[in-house]
Amino acid sequence: MKMDTVFEERLKRHHDELRWLYMELYNNGDMFAELCENLHEFAVKRDPDLAGLDREREQNPEWFRGNDMLGMMLYIDNFAGDIKGVQEKLPYLSSCNVNCIHLMPFLESPKGRSDGGYAVADFRKVQPKLGTMEELSELAKACHKKKINLCMDFVMNHTSEDHEWAKKAREGDGEYMSRYFFYDNPSIPQEYDRTVPQVFPTTAPGNFTYLDEMGYYVMTSFYPYQWDLNYGNPRVFNEMMYNFLYLANQGMDIIRIDAVPYIWKELGTQCRNLPQVHTIVRMMRMICEIVCPGVLLLGEVVMEPEKVVPYFGTVEKPECHMLYNVTTMATTWHSVATKDIRLLKKQMDIVNGLPGDYLFLNYLRCHDDIGWGLDYGTLKGWGMKEVEHKRFLNQHFTGRFEGSESRGELYNDDPVTQDARFCGTTASMCGVESALYEKNEEKLQNAVRMDLMLHAYMLTQSGIPMLYSGDEIGQLNDYSYKNDEDKKEDSRYIHRGKFQWELAEKKAENGTVQEQIFSGLSRLEQIRRSRSVFRSDASVYTYDVKDDAILCILRENEEERFIGIFNFSDEPRTAWMAEEGSYMDLMTGKERELVDVTVPGHDFVWAVKVR
Q1: Active-site residue set
Q2: pLDDT of residue 1
Q3: Which of 116, 405, 411, 575 is least buried, going by the fewest C-beta atoms within 10 A?
Q4: C-alpha–C-alpha distance, residues 62 and 479, integer Å
């Protein structure tokens, strides 16, 4: 079937709703007609191999929900130098059982004012030191041959002040000024500041930046060099969708929409999660299904699971294909510090109670800091007050609390509110770094055990697990960022260090930290991939074992009943339970009874019973 015909059929399915939403938002028929013309252009220019992949995935819309999905996020330069280097390292990634690579921001951004690549100066150009768009496309083709998916960030809330639009706006061009939020006096910015929370109150206070040379204020929600885009202007929406489709046509399988809740601004509101945001995301979903239906939308929405649900849309009108499970990640580390899983169990019950087609991406850490956005209403009832508890968590994970073996650094430390976020690699947070420094073998084994227990717990959750590059070999904090003028003020670089290939070579040396973590993770990943009970259609519950230090998770389908037991304490604890019949311990392959199971400190049990 010709691409023109395929496009017309897809457009026909969505045209009326897409036009209705567009006109509701912009009331501009000419701009909508232009949008449709460009959608056609991007569709017919789509690579034949990608078009074939689109058709395969249309026939199998659940393709990304399998228990074989495993992601890894990485910075191109830190991992392999450049895009060609990543392509050369695909065999290594395959050996990690990874079939989804999230390339952290790689589009052109100004040195020293890049926010880790999230201040984009050109949406159609790769940072020269990393390679070219042609090389990115070649990487995507190589990934597809190995059945590996490629994910990238689409930063749509703002551009760099070095973007072509911003440069023309700075020159006073009204057409381009209208693509941002410019005000010639402080009155309206002050009105916004009354209701809009600050994203980075310590490192980038306020929501506007004054441009002396222009005599204007421009909205900058994140950093002064990142200018917020005005999606009330249909030209902004259209042009950003053309950028989106250009990137999709390079071979991306998943596109992460950065800072989704912020993309619509309205005076008198918090400029977060407004109804128009959902209109825009719904239109993006339809545009994908018209031009590139094999591409998935991953939404970055940093809120509790029950509050992010609207970003999935509905069965009839879907929005994002998947969302981050941010709150559960933060609560996991709270559970490590407190040795108390009650809040984690409560949140998992909420997630497990959501419709099964809501797909979350789960992780222990990412490129960003860990913010302590916990359920303090619940914690207060257990005697944990917000300010004091945040202070305790930060002291624990920086190793300043008695008995803590964790190591890391604070981010955005506010001396007034005493609020801060935390940064560190998984291994360093688990105590591997401090144990190696002390040359304490007992502490080292406990740290490795905790690291594997936490990964086993993450792999047990419903959704897609995402590793951070280096965690598979227990990579530690990298303090060298303090010697880099462009990075030394941003402690998040402590866990964004260069991948240490010399450590990766040790993964085959029996008994090394690298071998223990890599082989342990590989075993877990292979088990997860081979057992039907880990499929997304399985029922998932938490299991009360009468001990607040032990989290127990039950998964079951018609074929298997799985139980995972995770001890968040550093001492042996007993899961009080009485399961009938014999289970197989998935880590040892031996039969065992699950009756009042004692689990060593920071250890876990994976067991299954075939029905």
Answers
A1: 258, 300
A2: 63
A3: 116
A4: 42
